[in-house]
């Protein structure tokens, strides 16, 4: 619109100028053959027309066509995979400035997506590579006929652990993909929330008994409307993490609070805790605070839990300090059935 307005205004000015020139020529009879140099005004008008036309062409070329050409070249670079290119937004017409701003923003977003994709591929490749290499190594060892039955059984057990790790990783990736693609198309139904949490605790009993952990449970009877399958995964991931990072002979606290508008589930441990930097990134996909990978896991559990809670229109919060344990709070609204 600015471009059209400018061209229209220039045309009006030029038209008014030529009308004024023709009026002067006619008024003073400058083009009469009887007058000496009567063709000079005509030559002057032609010359002035050329100057004005050239000025308009330069203006349009520099202010409108050149920015479009620069944008075309920049888009060609982006098409080749260069997401670092940025266009200067200064000293441009308002519409061109907005166009450049949107282009720069798009390139930044594409660069971020490309970085995430590369990180995802790199991390998944690393996660798959470790158990596969382990399984391959024990397969080679099993080819030794001199192995004792005890050694053979130990190697088979290690191979089984590797396959379970691969299964757990693929399951989590598939669940995240399902959540991201299906979104709010999850199947909601009524179930006992307190019983579900107890089932998870019983399922993980071998793990917390091995560390001699004591459990402080406060789970009043609670009817809830949501996706039973995925919420089970939330409690499983949170409880498994609490056990994994707890000290021997410590305690885990699981409380369920019923309110009129929501259910509040609090799960806290007395484990190693986390720094503020780790706490900020704990829900990122594939993020692991233990870069040495001494602890089992693939950095998907908490990301999966957060996404499930958000699909139930809830939220999850965490508070933690090093050597002081961690406390997770999950808020689930009660009005999902009517939403």
Give a structural overview.
The structure is a single chain. By secondary structure, this protein is of the alpha+beta class. The chain has 3 domains: 2-82; 125-182, Helix Hairpins, CATH 1.10.287; 186-338, Histidine kinase-like ATPase, C-terminal domain (Heat Shock Protein 90). The protein has helices spanning 2-28, 40-79, 94-142, 149-182, 193-203, 205-210, 228-244, 276-281, 301-311; strands at residues 189-192, 214-218, 223-226, 251-258, 262-269, 315-320, 326-333. A 5-stranded mixed β-sheet has the order 2-4-5-7-6, with helices on one face. Helix 1 (2-28) packs antiparallel against helix 2 (40-79) and helix 7 runs antiparallel to helix 9 (301-311).
Keywords for this entry:
alpha+beta, Helix Hairpins, single chain, 5-stranded mixed β-sheet, EC 2.7.13.3, 7 strands, Heat Shock Protein 90, elongated, two-stranded antiparallel ribbon, 59% helix
- The dominant shape is elongated
The CATH homologous superfamily of the largest domain corresponds to Histidine kinase-like ATPase, C-terminal domain
List the total number of helices: 9
Neighbour order of strands in the largest sheet:
2-4-5-7-6
CATH classification class of the largest domain? Alpha Beta
Percentage of residues in helical conformation: 55-70%
Distance between the termini: 44 Å
Structural class: alpha+beta
Uncertain runs are 291-298
Gyration radius from CA atoms, angstroms: 36 Å
Kindly state the mean pLDDT as a whole number? 79
Please provide the count of β strands.
Answer: 7
Order of helices and strands: HHHHEHHEEHEEHHEE
What is the CATH architecture descriptor of the largest domain?
2-Layer Sandwich
Total of domains = 3
The main pleated sheet reads as: 5 strands, mixed
CATH-derived topology of the largest domain? Heat Shock Protein 90
- Determine the strand fraction and express it as a percent band: 5-15%
């Amino acid at each position: 619109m600015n471009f059209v307005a400018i061209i229209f205004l220039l045309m009006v000015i030029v038209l008014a100028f030529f009308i004024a020139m023709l009026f002067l020529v006619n008024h003073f009879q400058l083009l009469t053959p009887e007058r000496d140099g009567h063709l000079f005004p005509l030559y002057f008008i032609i010359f002035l027309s050329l100057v004005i036309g050239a000025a308009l062409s330069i203006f349009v070329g520099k202010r409108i066509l050149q920015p479009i050409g620069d944008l075309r070249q920049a888009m060609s670079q982006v098409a080749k995979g260069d997401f670092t290119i940025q266009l200067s937004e200064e000293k441009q017409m308002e519409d061109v400035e907005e166009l450049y701003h949107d282009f720069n923003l798009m390139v930044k977003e594409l660069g971020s997506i490309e970085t995430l994709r590369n990180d995802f591929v790199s991390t998944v490749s690393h996660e798959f590579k470790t158990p596969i290499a382990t399984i391959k190594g024990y397969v080679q060892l099993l080819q030794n006929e001199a192995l004792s039955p005890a050694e053979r059984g130990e190697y088979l057990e290690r191979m089984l652990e590797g396959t379970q790790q691969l299964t757990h990783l693929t399951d989590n990736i598939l669940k995240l993909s399902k959540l991201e693609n299906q979104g709010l198309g999850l199947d909601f139904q009524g179930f006992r929330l307190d019983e579900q949490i107890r089932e998870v605790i019983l399922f993980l009993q071998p793990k917390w008994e091995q560390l001699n952990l004591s459990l402080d449970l406060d789970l009043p009877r609670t009817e809830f409307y949501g996706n039973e399958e995925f919420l089970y995964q939330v409690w499983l991931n949170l409880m498994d993490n609490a056990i994994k990072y707890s000290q021997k002979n410590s305690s885990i606290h699981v409380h369920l609070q019923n309110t009129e508008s929501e259910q509040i589930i609090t799960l806290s441990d007395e484990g190693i805790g986390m720094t503020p930097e780790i706490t900020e990134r704990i829900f990122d996909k594939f993020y692991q605070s233990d870069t040495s990978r001494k602890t089992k896991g693939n950095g998907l559990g908490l990301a999966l839990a957060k996404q499930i809670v958000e699909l139930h229109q809830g939220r999850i919060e965490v508070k933690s300090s090093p050597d002081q344990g961690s406390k997770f709070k999950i808020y689930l609204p009660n009005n999902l059935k009517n939403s």
